[in-house]
Amino acid sequence: MSIDSDRSAPVTVEPVVVGTGPVAPQDVVRVARDGAAVRLSDESLAAMGESRRRIEALAADPKPVYGVSTGFGALAVRHIPLELRKQLQRSLIRSHAAGSGAEVEREVVRALMLLRLSTLATGRTGVRPVVAQTYAALLSAGITPVVYEYGSLGCSGDLAPLAHVALAVLGEGAVRDADGALLPAAEALAAAGIAPVELAEKEGLALINGTDGMLGMLVLACHDLRNLLRLADVTAAMSVEGLLGTDKVFAADLQALRPQPGQAIAAANMTRLLADSAIVASHATPDCTVVQDAYSLRCAPQVAGGARDTLAHAERVAGYELASAVDNPVVTLDGRVESNGNFHGAPVAYVLDFLAIVVADVASISERRTDRFLDKARNHGLPPFLADDPGVDSGHMIAQYTQAAIVSELKRLAAPASVDSIPSSAMQEDHVSMGWSAARKLRRSIDGLTRVLAIEALTAARALDLRAPLTPAPATAAVRDVLRAHVDGPGADRYLAPEIDAAVRLAASGALLAGAESVIGPLG
Fold this sequence. Notes:
The protein is 55% helix and 5% strand. It folds into two domains: 16-210, Orthogonal Bundle (Fumarase C, Chain B, domain 1); 218-419 and 432-520, Fumarase/aspartase (Central domain) (Fumarase C, Chain A, domain 2), CATH 1.20.200. The chain is elongated and about 90 Å long. The protein has 20 helices and nine strands. Helix 1 links the parallel strand 1 and strand 2. Helix 15 runs antiparallel to helix 16, helix 15 (346-374) runs parallel beside helix 17 and helix 18 (474-484) runs antiparallel to helix 20 (511-520).
């Protein structure tokens, strides 16, 4: 259920500079989706050089240091002699590149690479500058290592996904070039003039010991969901209008009685969207017999607002993680090399699961509004199923079935991954986060919400047309007009799947939201 799982973008935007501080979320999006090139700051190169000198000193010390002169995980009890340490790092990458399943999307791999590079650039991992520079070179050349769906438990880092990336840096495994062609890594690196890396002490471990995959997917999901929640306010307003609901319940003083910040934003958006609607004004009279609208209309700000507040929490967690240097062992600011548990993905896994829950609920209330349009007992005078000739025509009957099927799946995807744990590495790694799995299902959930909102917009636009000669609000009319440039208005039954697909593309691209904002300005 993927709208665009293989986004390809040329390297045409300003490069992202990676320093010792956190990468901005918008820069993650630029690198992942827009193909932005990457370069390292002088400060980061100096910091890496300094910490590398500390690692090299420890490598010469006879005292065992985890990841420098020992094996890994449950095999850390073995001291590795000097002559085998390069082989140790190379073997780590080869053995851990054990993923399986479908290829992971290009944008996810690029986000993962940028975030691992960001941690390397802090100087807290002890890798040589050349290793980080090679990651930046691959990103800038548009070379994307092939990473597979399964292989991360979200603890000790996203091990298999990160190992497949590191394997490509060694000149092994498979990659896709900037045009999407599948090539051996050695061939693609040679064509781009990039020399493969020969890993030294600790470097293999530093390349795979982070939460970068799940964090990259969280950052991308937050970006998408913030726009989709604005679109949810747009489609809800269209439905309130088309179902002859009232906008009075969205008044600011009523929202202030329950000072949830997201709720206030959603209600204010809906008030602006419905301003100057002749349809709303037509029944805002003393003789109107409707006392209260259904929950799916009246409580839209409460649901979308709660989703906004959950998203805000997820964005805070992502911000903390973007400011982190996740590795084990880590080189501290005072030069110590210490083992730690910062690679555990629990904080990220939790919010990924939280977002899957709110996505399912926002989609659920959207589907309920669509269903009301189709029931002549509840749609206040519209034809059954919005059909042109009910009985001969079925109108949008099965569009709601499609919504319902998606919503049902979203409810299943809302079951949290982070409550599960399967011990690994001979019980050394006996509690894991499953954050990668939480991120993978959230991507599917975001896709589903996009489709559900698109179908609500399509159905609500048809209803607004059927209310003629009454006219909708300027903002909702603009959204309807964006749809009408691609999908015809009411009439006899037509092949519906292409119309739904067109609406989905308009929702995913931001065109529907832009239609409303072209009239009333940016929504909150």
